[in-house]
Amino acid sequence: MSATGEEKAHGSGSETSFxxxxxxxxxxRGWRGLYFHPATQVCLLGLVCFMCPGMFNAVNGLGAGGQVxxxxxxxxxxxxYATFAFFAFxxxxxxxxxxxxxxxxxxxxxxxxxxASYLVTNIHPGAGDFVVVAGANLGVCAALVWTxxxxxxxxxxxxxxxxxxxxxxxxxxxxxxxxxxxxxxGLNFNSTANKLGNGTYxxxxxxxxxxxxLPLFLADPYKIIRTDGTRxxxxxxxxxxxxxxxxxVALKTDxxxxxxxxxxxxxxYFYTWQFNDYxxxxxxxxxxxxxxxxxxxxxIFGSFFIGHFVLDxxxxxxxxxxxxxxxxxxxxxxxxxxxxYYYQLTYTRTSDPPTAVKMDINDPNYPAHVWLMIFxxxxxxxxxxxxxxxxxxxxxxxxxxxxxxxxxxxxQSAGSAVVWRLDAVxxxxxxxxxxxxxxAAAGMICAFPLVYARVKDYTxxxxxxx
Length: 466
Hints:
The protein is 69% helix and 0% strand. With 466 residues, the chain is an all-alpha fold. Helix 3 runs parallel beside helix 8 (162-187), helix 6 runs antiparallel to helix 9 and helix 14 (318-344) runs antiparallel to helix 17. The two termini are 28 Å apart. Mean pLDDT is 89; it is low at 1-20.
């Protein structure tokens, strides 16, 4: 079966070098064709992350995990990202031995335990240490989840579809944060307290437990045939020794990935200031819930915009799209942080302690402040989508992409561990904000040489495997 007419009109749907012969397979028809369709599988993957990481985002995005005192939450996140950083470095190798479905099954339950720890803290106020332990455990679990997710999401689409498929996933995944935030906002609309009630945490817990069983419904990757007729490379199941060696082989054979490490490091660093030091510091609980809802909703639009309308814009060559996407993110980095700097000048930890009266949705200054949350949501989604797209432009091999994703999550989590600990020890808001801005700018500057020299219009066969 040949590629579709539309894909032929734009080069090959997978944009593989024309000099290479690629075997074409016939896609299944009927319900099997629907179930084994790459878009269906990416959407199911998004649903898994809707239920688990999505609920985690809904809780964390409220600031302080929905609590009054941010100390336990900050320490839990520091522990989470410290273990995440360590295990993510090796998670690509673990993934290539266990396979993606088992990694997702083993990893998702950690999100349920983390959410349950906040419920326990509500019932037993002295149980802050349990939240920290649950956070450390989640770091290990999240490394498995996100490595499997990144590998499948970047391997299933043709290269002409990568930005769009990332947009599909990001939209469904962030709907978890949207729904969770809407629940928090609705249940706490009339609350005079500055923290979530037990019912909200129970709702989040039930949803996350649903996500634990969803990986059972995912298809085996080697049965997936892309829309252009090419088959997804089967996930290898070699020895542990071979896979750990492959980490260093990946760095040796594709050293350009190192230029993305600063971008990876900064990619979750800004969450601490956004969630704890802006949303958590300035607003009461119902307003934090509304801000969170708006933030994750903006992410859906931001990811789909840059993925579908910029990075997959077929009228331009892939290298041109790479430069265009990079330029848009750079503009957003400086525009949004200049805006944030203006607000950060107006408050400190001393002027706005946790027990102070917080800004409400009826405050006349609120509309201007919520627009900043919207633009931060757009920036975050475009940043993450661009990072995944750049990795996807370097290879189509799930095993290699799993290693790249492990690097991504390793450095991303290392940055998060550092900044959450800085927040836990009460470093000034301004210090955390400036470090956030500097790292975001540095990450994009360091990525430029890779965009210039490594991203090609077509993926060469030499790039396909480790």
